[in-house]
Amino acid sequence: RSCSFTGFSTVQSRKLAKSLSRSSVRSRMSLKPPKAYNSLQKGALIWDPKPLQVKKIFEALKKGLNEYLEAHQAELDYLSGRHKDTKRNSRLAFYYDLDKQIRSVERYIRKLEFHISKVEELYEAYCIQCRLRDGATNMKQAFSLSPSTKASRESLVELYKNVQECTEDMCFIEGALEVHLGEFHVKMKGLVGFARLCPGDQYEVFVRLGRQKWRLKGKIETDDSQTWDEEEKIFIPNLHEKFEIKVTELRGLATILVGVVTCDSINFFTTKPQPIIVDITELGTIKLRLEVLW
Question: Which residues form a coiled coil (predicted)?
Fold first, then answer.
C-alpha cells in the first residue's frame, strides 16, 4: 500500500496540511492556558492524550448530568401542578412562594442544559482532533515507507507538525473538559474489621487523587465506635487519575502498612450518594467505608 503514496504531490500534501491546520481546535475555540487545569498545571505538561479514558469519562459525565436534568424536570412538573392548584384556591402567599421555587428550578435546568451542550461540544471537537491525528499519523507512516524525494520529505515535515498540533489540541480540550467535571464530596464512614479492630487501635487513612491529598487519623473507642479527626473532603475529579487509598496502623512511634488500593471514579458521576466499601487487606479482613456525593 505504501507505493500508492509515492506519487502524492507537494501541492496535495500542502492541501492536506492546510485542511488539518484549519481544523485546529484553537482556531475555533477560545481555551484558557494550561495552568488553569488540574492535569496541566505546575509545568507538568505532557502531550499524551488518552482518547479511550476520555470517552469513558464523557459517557459517565453525560449520563450523570442527564440524571440531574431528569430529576429537576420531574421536580418542575410537580411544582407546576401544585402551582395551578394553588392559583385556583387563591392562597396568594403560598402561590408566590411556589412561583419563586419554579423560577429557581427553571434557571437550574437551563444551566444544566448549557452544561450538557458545552460538554458535548468539547467532546465533539476532541473526537475531530483525534481522527485528524490518526489520519496524519497513518499518512506519516506511509510516507516514511515510500522512496525519499523532496516532495515526500516536505510532506513528512508538514504531517509531523500536524500530528503535534492535533495532539496539543487534544490535551487542551482534555483540560477544558476537566473544568466541567464538578466536585466529589467524600465522607469517611469508618473501618470495618470485625475481630481485627480492637479498642485503642489507631489508624491513619491517606486518600490521594492526582495532586489532591487527604490524610486523617482515627481511633477505635472502648464501645467499638470510631472517632476521626476529619469527616469530609472535597476532591476535584480528574480525567486520568484514580483514587489511591492507603491505610496504616499507628503503634506508638511505629507505623504498620495495612494495605494500599486504587479506586476508579467513573461510577461516581451520578445523582445519588455512592457507598464505597474497599478491601484494604488482600483477604478483606479490614475494609474501608466511604461515601461519595457528586
Answer: none
Q: Give domain status of residue 27, yes or no.
A: no
Distance CA 155, CA 10 (A): 7
Range of the domain at 58: 51-179
Identify which has the larger pLDDT, 86 or 174: 174
How many domains are contained in the chain? Answer: 2
Q: What percent of the chain has pLDDT over 90?
A: 60
Q: What nine digits make up the cell of 52?
A: 479511550
Q: Would you say the pTM of this structure is higher than 0.90?
A: no
Confidence band, pLDDT 50/70/90 cuts, at residue 294: very high
Most confident among 6-10, 37-41, 167-171, 195-199 (mean pLDDT): 167-171
